[in-house]
Amino acid sequence: MLRNALRSMALLVVTGLVTVPAQAEPQRFALDESHVSVGFLIGHARFADVLGQFTAVSGQFRYNPDTQTLLSGRVEVAADSVFTGHEERDGHVRDGDFLAVDEHPVIVFEASGYAPTGEREGTLRGDLTLLGVTRPIELDLTLNRRGDHPIGGADTLGGSARGVIQRSEFGMDYALEGDLVGDRVELIIEFEAIRQDD
What we know:
This protein is mainly beta. The chain has one domain: Beta Barrel (Lipocalin). It contains 2 helices and 10 strands. An 8-stranded antiparallel barrel has the order 1-3-4-6-7-8-9-10. Strand 6 (106-116) and strand 7 form a beta hairpin. The N and C termini lie far apart (46 Å).
C-alpha cells in the first residue's frame, strides 16, 4: 500500500500536478566598498575610549538564504587605512608598536561558519589574521534587510556585527602596563553587500 502511494506521488510530481519547493542555490555577495565600515573602540588610560575605523575594506561571501548557511567568506582590511581623527596618533598606530603596516599590510577575516539564533540574528565564526597571527573569533551578526536597493535597484543584503578581541593575543602588547592602552578592542562592523551574478 505504501509502495503504491509513493508511486502515485512520484507520478503527480513528474506530471506537474504537485510541485516540490526548490531550495535556493548559494548566492555570492560582494561588499559595497562605499557602504562598509569596520570600526573599533579601545580604552585610553581608563579615561575614555578612542574611536577609530579602517577606510579601505573589501570582501565577498557565499550565503544560502533558505538554509541560513554561510559557505565561505573573506574580508580584507588595509591596515594603513586606519583613521582615528588625529594625524600624529594615526601615524603611531601604523608603526611597529601597534599595526606594523609595513610588515603586515593586510588584516584578514576568513569566515568559517554562521549559526543562526533567530530569523535575522546569529553568530558568525571565523579566523582573524592580524600581525601575522591567526586566531578564531566570534561576532554577533544581525541581518538587517534584504531587498532591492532604493538607489540603483541592486539586490542588497545589509548587516551589523559586533565582537571583542584581545590585542595581546595577536602579539600587540605595547602600553598594556598600567592599562595606558587597553587590551580589549571592541569591533563595530556595518555593511551592505550586493548579490553578484556568477
